[in-house]
Amino acid sequence: MAPVTVITGGSRGIGAATARRLARAGHHLALGYRRDHLAADAVLAELRAAGVHAVAVPADTRDPDQVAALFAAAADLGPVTGLVNNAGVTSPIGPFTELRPDDLREVVDVNLVGYVLCAQQAARLMTDGAAIVNVSSVAATLGSPGEYVHYAAVKAGTDALTVGLAKELAPRGIRVNGVAPGIIRTDIHALSGQPDRPERVAGRIPLGRPGEPDEVAAAIAWLLSPDASYTAGAVLRVGGGL
Ligand code: NAP
């Protein structure tokens, strides 16, 4: 039976690249997104053209009912075997003292509460052989001073989620891991007010360039695959040396 994988934030960036890669590996896919219907439909058309069954569901991961609807749509494709907890946001880049409470709450709600709600749905449905990948960030260990310390703190929280859930679910044969991307060329930088950030900071990346979404997708796909059958509780850095 083909694997069935839920990808939150599957309409753009790392999530969309992961969807394309998993489709090539034969996964049926349920993509969640927040509001960009056109982007989600464009990815969906590509997945279906690759020959897999796929649905796109507008599901805000902050809302337990919308998360439940996303997993219900996935279950229509077959037993759910994978979750990529990926939907994430930053807030405007700037000094800690300028951080607005609403931006802080959104970062916590999407990047942490959303991950917990999705992992909870997945853990209820999944059986032996299933896997979860939480998309974290190198920020979790670097701290992102002067940019978004609160986002870094929340990403460290998702790494703790990975470690704890890996131990809780391993006895049921469910593997939980994380991927911590470095600076990857996606729309997230424009949304945080600095579209040219990947190029601007390339000089401090040991490999000398920002990463591409597909380079992160490769790590996610590996962690979901049987090739990673003995990997649990790991957070794999994909940061060009950062
Ligand atoms: P992106 O290009 O901005 O895409 C974000 C995706 O998440 C979109 O599909 C968006 O849907 C969705 N989304 C946002 N808020 C949502 C919500 N509340 N509910 C459901 N979906 C929501 O982001 P990205 O750069 O690919 O980032 C993906 C993940 O990687 C995030 O967790 C991010 O923190 C992490 N990361 C990224 C980088 C980087 O440099 N890009 C580095 C480290 C870690 P809509 O378009 O419909 O809003």
Automatic annotation (TrEMBL):
<dbReference type="GO" id="GO:0030497">
    <property type="term" value="P:fatty acid elongation"/>
</dbReference>
<feature type="domain" description="Ketoreductase">
    <location>
        <begin position="3"/>
        <end position="204"/>
    </location>
</feature>
<keyword id="KW-0560">Oxidoreductase</keyword>
<dbReference type="InterPro" id="IPR057326">
    <property type="entry name" value="KR_dom"/>
</dbReference>
<dbReference type="InterPro" id="IPR036291">
    <property type="entry name" value="NAD(P)-bd_dom_sf"/>
</dbReference>
<dbReference type="Pfam" id="PF13561">
    <property type="entry name" value="adh_short_C2"/>
</dbReference>
<protein>
    <submittedName>
        <fullName>Oxidoreductase</fullName>
    </submittedName>
</protein>
<comment type="similarity">
    <text>Belongs to the short-chain dehydrogenases/reductases (SDR) family.</text>
</comment>
<dbReference type="GO" id="GO:0016616">
    <property type="term" value="F:oxidoreductase activity, acting on the CH-OH group of donors, NAD or NADP as acceptor"/>
</dbReference>
<dbReference type="InterPro" id="IPR002347">
    <property type="entry name" value="SDR_fam"/>
</dbReference>
